Amino acid sequence: MTLTAVGRRAVLVVFSILILHGCAEEGPGSAEVEKVGAAFFAALQQKDFDRALTFYDEQFFKGRDREQWKSHLQEVQDKLGDLKSAELKRQQDDIRYSGMFHIYEYRVTYANEVAWETVTLFVPNGGEEARIFGHSIKAKSIQ
Q1: What percent of the chain has a predicted confidence (pLDDT) above 70?
Q2: 123 - beta bridge partners?
Q3: Structural contact between residues 55 and 131, judged by C-beta atoms closer than 8 angstroms
């Protein structure tokens, strides 16, 4: 018995869905990842920049110096004022072969200005924790 081209495609689609579904269930769920984001912003709010850096993945620092990024985070608060709150406004989960990317957009209220910060947390396949893979800060006072 041979499969037709349509039959082969159908089997491939079902197989792909099962594989991706299995990947999506590994590691922490969205609720746990959101807690990581909240803990990260709590560290920034307390101006504990050393603790905030512990949330970043080592991959993040392959493209930038750790101490320079720490200084950048400090400069953000120097310009925008003390961090008052961070509210998760949008989220998108993106399954890739390497794992799950959680892309979160926060409305961050500082004493002097509101910023929009996008934090991408990554959980590798088989991983147990979410780590910050990307972080951008957009505010009028920051170039």
Answers
A1: 82
A2: 100
A3: yes
Tokens representing residue 143 in the block = 């170039």
Quick check: 90 pLDDT over 50?
yes
Taking the C-alpha atoms of residue 140 and residue 143, their distance in angstroms, rounded to an integer, is 7
Q: What is d(CA 19, CA 112) in angstroms, rounded to the nearest whole number?
A: 47
Is pLDDT above 70 for 20? no
Strands (E), the chain: 83-96, 99-110, 114-124, 131-138
Give the model confidence (pLDDT) of 93-125 as tens digits. Answer: 998 889 999 999 999 999 999 999 999 999 999
- CB distance 106 to 87 below 8 Å: yes
Here the tokens at position 87 are 């509210």
Identify the helix (H) or strand (E) that includes residue 30: helix 30-45
What is d(CA 51, CA 79) in angstroms, rounded to the nearest whole number? 21
Which DSSP category does 62 fall into? Answer: G
Q: What single letter denotes the amino acid at residue 130? A: A
pTM: 0.79
Comparing CA positions, the residue from 5, 9, 30, 24 lying closest to residue 92 is 30
